[in-house]
Design goal:
This protein is an alpha/beta fold. The chain has 14 helices and 29 strands. Helix 7 packs across helix 9 and helix 7 packs across helix 12. The longest helix is centred in the first third of the chain and has 13 residues. The chain starts with a helix and ends in an 11-residue tail after the last strand. The mean pLDDT is 93. Its EC number is 2.8.3.5. This is Succinyl-CoA:3-ketoacid-coenzyme A transferase. It is an enzyme of class 2 (transferase). Pathway: Ketone metabolism; succinyl-CoA degradation; acetoacetyl-CoA from succinyl-CoA: step 1/1.
């Protein structure tokens, strides 16, 4: 157990310690008091950029957001946050009050107000890949003006022209479009230049703080909070517990107080869970995957190799972890800041501080670790996470992937998908139904939807077959068939030409 520094020092040194410990406390009596102090540094309450921590509803600064929502003088906000909470909660409150003018986010999620305001021309939205957003914040806090990333190369994010704001007249015409990014080739790979983000005020949530502003986070509630804290000129941290300086073990502090200007104990702390997801009893209906989805899941599980670090998308990909081949152990990464993701919690044991990238409640396995969003995507971009399995709306014969938006109709955002598929050298497996619900092709010569990644897919697993993608030269090869389907069936349901593996085509596993 950690022993306070005071008791470990000899008596002759304690007077010196008291001198260095006499700096003013950073603790403020209320969120309103902390915000008043912050506004004194800006000399205005309008047109400010707020960097707001949290992922979904996990680790959001509820008290500080509530205090801002009660101050009508705070207007024309630019909010930098991975997403905007949900309708009427979190940053959703500030959207509904009309205080937010612009969002810089990676994900719209299930916030209908966010989506409606964007498509209706009431809100400017700069959609940014999740890892790029985290790194832009980290770079801003580190004094680095810009950096190059492989994420989004070859997509509309790099090429420019994506709608940031629609005209408010209902015409659907674009008022503001994104500008092209500078690109450069390093080691035969195209990279995109992204500028750092700094904010006027950072609003973050932590578990514990001491009176000097040192912070400790809990579980996946760390997420964007350290990155947002560093990026702000003035940082306010709301915390669940405040202790005296010296009571926190220096080696266990996640964010030094040099990045934090004031600390306030939470007054609003509902810690709402966006998706309470509990473990199905073994053998129950909810634990059994049948039909075409079951076929996809079982085939996807064959891609796991012992010792792999793996990122699994929500839905079909996540289910694959339940069918690990015998003798295979993998480490599951969730890009919101967890390595060693375990099963859903047992009934009644859901914890708001432990969620996955789909905002579902999860549990950590023994040996798990948590980290910030920028650290999470650092391990993704550097290919420490060797396999990504995710869903798709469309895949082209050249291995292009589209899975994040239907322009003018559905705006979910790219989240971390662009970062996950854009890492040079990573293996990307797409799992999806072979055709759309209306019978239209999802595997095409060219994607008609905005791309998530260009030439990034290695393997496509559908309910009908398995295709191998040649990312370098382009082209698909049919390597497995589901029982009951023929090559002619695949040709009829595929919108591009493909080769067929030599010899007898193996069958995918059945239930």
């Amino acid at each position: 157990m950690f022993t306070s520094l005071t008791t470990r020092l000899p008596p002759t040194s304690r007077s010196l310690l008291r001198f260095f410990s006499s700096s003013p406390s950073k603790v403020r009596e209320s969120p309103a008091a902390a915000l008043t102090e912050a506004f004194q540094t800006t000399s205005t309450k309008k047109n400010l950029t707020f960097c707001v921590g949290g992922f979904g509803l996990c680790g959001i600064p509820e008290s500080l957001i509530q205090s801002i929502s009660l101050d009508p003088e705070v207007t024309n906000i630019t909010a930098v946050s991975n997403n905007a909470g949900v309708d009427g909660f979190g940053l959703g409150k500030l959207l509904e009050s009309g205080q937010v003018e612009r969002m810089i986010s990676s994900y719209v999620g299930e916030n209908k107000t966010f989506e409606k305001m964007y498509l209706g021309g009431e809100l400017a939205v700069e959609l940014t890949p999740q890892g790029t957003l985290a790194e832009r914040l980290r770079a801003g806090g580190a004094g680095i003006p810009a950096f190059f990333t492989p994420t989004a190369a070859g997509t509309v994010i790099a090429d420019g022209g994506f709608p940031i704001k629609y005209k408010p007249d209902g015409s659907g015409d674009v008022e503001i479009s994104s500008t092209p990014r500078e690109t450069r080739v390093f080691n035969n790979v195209e990279y995109v230049m992204e500028e750092a983000i700094t904010g006027d005020i950072s609003l973050v949530k932590a578990w514990k703080a001491d009176t000097r502003g040192n912070l400790v986070f809990r579980g996946t509630a760390r997420n964007f909070n350290p990155d947002c804290a560093r990026a702000g000129k003035f940082c306010i941290a709301e915390v669940e517990e405040i202790v005296e300086a010296g009571e926190l073990d220096p080696d266990e502090i996640h964010l030094p107080g040099v990045f934090v200007n004031s600390v306030v104990k939470v007054t609003e702390n509902e810690k709402r869970i966006e998706q309470v997801t509990e473990r199905a009893e073994e053998g129950s209906e909810g634990s059994v995957v049948k039909g075409g989805r079951g076929r996809i899941v079982r085939r996807a599980a064959k891609e796991f190799k012992d010792g792999m670090y793996v990122n699994l998308g929500i839905g079909i990909p996540t289910m694959a972890s339940n069918f690990l081949p015998e003798g295979v152990r993998i480490e599951l990464q969730s890009e919101n800041g967890l390595m060693g993701m375990g099963p859903f919690p047992k009934k009644g044991e859901a914890d708001a501080d432990w969620i996955n990238a789909g905002k579902q409640t999860v549990t950590p396995v023994p040996g798990a670790s948590t980290f910030s969003s920028s650290d999470s995507f650092g391990m993704i971009r550097s290919c420490k996470v060797g396999l990504t399995i995710l869903g798709g709306m469309q895949v082209s014969g050249n291995g292009d992937l589209a899975n994040w938006i239907i322009p003018g109709k559905m705006v979910k955002g790219m989240g971390g998908a662009m970062d996950l598929v854009g890492a040079p050298g990573s293996r990307v497996v797409v799992t999806m139904e072979h055709v759309a619900k209306n019978g239209s092709h999802k595997i095409l010569g060219d994607c008609t939807l905005p791309l998530t990644g260009k030439g990034v897919v290695d393997l496509i697993i559908t309910d009908m077959c398995v295709f191998k993608c040649d990312k370098k030269n382009g082209g698909l090869t049919l390597i497995e068939l589901a029982k009951g389907f023929t090559v002619d069936d695949i040709k009829e349901n595929t919108g591009c030409e493909f080769d067929v593996v030599e010899g007898e085509i193996p069958f995918m596993d059945e239930e």
